[in-house]
Each structure stands twice: as C-alpha cells, then as structure tokens.
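ugh ok fine here u go
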Amino acid sequence: LAGALAQAKDEGELQQFFDNAEDLLVVAGADGYYKRVNPAFTRLLGYSEEELLSRPFMDFIHPDDHDHAALQMDRLARGEHLRDFEDRNVCKDGSHRWISWHVTPRLEAGVVFGVGRDITDRKEILRQSEQKFQTLAETIDAVVWTAHSPAGRPLSEAAVLYINPAVERLTGEPVDAFIGHNDKWFSLIHPDDLPRFQRTLEGLKSNSSMECEYRLLRPDGGVRWVFDRTWVVLSNREEGTHIGGLISDITERHQANEALKEKDRQIRQAQKLEAVGLLAGGVAHEYNNILQVIQ
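structure:
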C-alpha cells in the first residue's frame, strides 16, 4: 500500500486507487484515529466514512482483542512491519468480522498504512474443523494434544491448549492439570528419560516432526511406556509456534519385547552352556585317551 501511494501522481489517482480496491485499505494516525478508509472497509463494517473517522479506531475493535491490538501498535511505533495480524472488527449491526492485516508504519509522517482481508469465513471453517477434531479426539484411546509457544521462546515452554480425556486413563491425572502449561506433563516423565525427551523436542524445526519413547510415572506408582509423536502445526515470527502430538500407551508392547529379549538371552545362554558342556566332554574324552596310553 505504501508503495502504491508513493507512485500515485495526484490526489485524484490516489482516490481512484482507494475507491476501486477490493482489499480493505486504511490509513491511521499516531493519535489513534483513522485518517482515511476505503469503501470496501465501510461496506464490510456498515459504518459511514464519517463515523469511522470520527472515533478512535480501537472503538471498532472487539474488546477481547484490545490488549493484543495494543501490543501490535507498540511494535508499529518502533518501526516494525506487521504481517498476518488478525483481530475482530465490530460491525454497526453488532456482529464482528475477522480481518487479517498487513501494516506498514511511516514514522516520519506519523501514520501507518494497513491492507486487510476479511477472513471470517475461513475462521468459521477452521472453527468447525476444530470442533470435528475435538469430537474425534475424545473418542480415541491415544492422548491427543495441542500447545503453543510464543515467538522467541523455546518449545519446552509451550503451554498446552487442548488435551483429550485419554490423558486421565494414561496418567491418572485430570485434564485440567495439564491445560495452560506443560509443567505437569514434564513432571510425569521418568527422570532418566526427561533430558533425552527435551533434546528431541528442541530439535523440532518448522514443518517437521519428532518421535520418542519414554516412561511416565503415575501417582499410584505405576510406570507406563509411551510412544510420543509431535509435529509443528504452524510457526511464524508473529504467532510463535503451534505444535500438536499423539501419545500412545505401548507398555504391553514394550513388556512383550522385553520378554522376547529375555527369552532370546536365555536361549543364547543355554546354547553357550551346551557348547561348554560339549567342549568339557571332549576334553574329558581326550584326557581319558591320554591316561590309557600312559597306562
């Protein structure tokens, strides 16, 4: 938007650009008011241009998004560019629309240029998909979870956003004990396995996954072996990193494998003993032959 404005030869050309753009175009000042909005923006929200310019733009942002929007304003004041910044804008009829913004600051002019797109329909499709995911997740035996790590923070500090009821059967701990942080899960991992798990987790890169087997300690003293597959769902500088995982109880399989290994060990030991016995018998036979010759 800033480039297009710079290339506009006169005010008439600039107005034509604003009037015909399908994207949502706004210019906002450091005083917290819109200085210019295009028809696409007024049509979406249902307000007139005069109404949008006469009130602080925060009045048109959903109250639950004010804190997040204020943080983005601070970034713009430092000269940072915003990409894919999302917030809900309140319409005149009381409904709200989700808008994804790309915002460029012009500090020397005391304004910011914003280009937005209505992503409300996309958000609704995502909400329905998440609802279907949760319905499915709550009917399977494996533990399904999602977590978020803020931008610039390690994945080991990711806070759990969702975890299905299967976690109660696996760990003996309630779902609420895990939501909002990851301390509870880390506290259940066997101390001998925790460092390896943390190294594997921090090795995750964008669009990658990890697999790890480790032990969980239950409050009743039981130990469960689990197979943990974790993958990166979304990662960017603005939103941080979203990760998800699927954790399966492999205790019985692990015990069966250990029993098989023990059986193999016993067989090899028996074979060794048999070989020693044959060798000892051969030595004794040769010794008897020598004694007969001497006699």
